[in-house]
Write a structure and sequence with these properties.
Order of helices and strands: HHEHHEEH
Strand order of the largest sheet: 1-3-2
Oligomer: single chain
Distance between the termini: 45 Å
Strand content: 15-25%
Number of strands: 3
């Protein structure tokens, strides 16, 4: 509903156009990164996994758990999360691997190599 209001109330240029400009800038910078590197590697989430139902009443925490995965969607590149290790609390912690557009074969090959190391 808020999105409809923003787009219909004359805020289109202030919000949507600016967001598209930022997205284009991120895409351009990502293309330049992949001219030098084969992959971008980052954590999948900022903290170890939480137990099922543990955060169901904390929508902000659940939203923030996905914050690192948004980048790949914004710039249109493939990404995969592989388990890296278990945190001392026993919960898994993942590693996110991203490659350039249409390079899923390298993404899968690299993720398989990381899985073999774990």
């Amino acid at each position: 509903m808020l999105g409809s209001f923003v787009l219909s109330a004359g805020y289109f240029d202030a919000y949507f156009t600016k967001a598209q400009q930022v997205r284009t800038m991120l895409h351009t910078q990502t293309l330049s990164i992949f001219q030098q590197y084969d992959a971008i590697i980052s954590p999948t989430v900022p903290a170890p996994a939480f137990k099922i139902g543990e955060m169901q009443n904390d929508q902000v925490a659940m939203f923030l758990a996905d914050i690192y995965t948004v980048f790949a969607n914004l710039v249109g590149i493939p990404a995969i999360s592989v388990p890296l290790f278990k945190h001392p609390n026993g919960m898994p912690f993942g590693l996110q691997i991203m490659t350039s557009q249409f390079d899923e074969v390298s993404l899968l090959r690299l993720s398989k190599q990381f899985m073999e190391l774990a």
